[in-house]
Input
Amino acid sequence: RNFEIDFKKKGGEEFLAEVSSSLLNLGGKKAIQVIVRDITERKKMDKRLKTIYALCFYSSHEKWRTDSC
Output
């Protein structure tokens, strides 16, 4: 199970993290494994890619419209 949550580093800097957890059985004892990943850069890149896609998509439509006139 994964979810995203805002965290704060010791210095006060905030970052977005993906948290995943799973139940484990270690030698007959139950344990919970929690992994926290900083996904700040991944989210920034996703946003940039969406912007680039939108620019390319709309600019290609504009070219098509002007070429057909």
Residues 40-69 form one domain. The radius of gyration is 21 Å.
